[in-house]
Amino acid sequence: MQRTERAGFHPTLWSLAMVEDEVVGFIFSKKGTDNKAEITHLGVRRSKRKQGLGLALLQYAFGQLYEEGISKVHLNVDSENITGALRVYEAAGMEVQSKFVRFDKEVLLENKEEVQ
Asked: A single Pfam family, by name (predicted)?
């Protein structure tokens, strides 16, 4: 299936922030069901962070989604994100709804008996 045929694909919900000819930020959203949407990707070039660009992109996306009839937006983020993203989401009026825990285990050859 081509990307443009995927459920929720809506290219008008993808935006770039430009300074002259340089992309300095982006935000991609997709529509879900029941008037809900997801911010799937948000990024700001490191040299342009802490200037309000992430917040501006979020607010712009919220406006686009509202025009599309969307009443609720969510996104997923690492709760230990070191870029300051959580502060941006909170400044945009978003609230934590849930947290996830990830478990890891390094599986090495010397651990082979543990795996069998």
From this structure: Acetyltransf_1
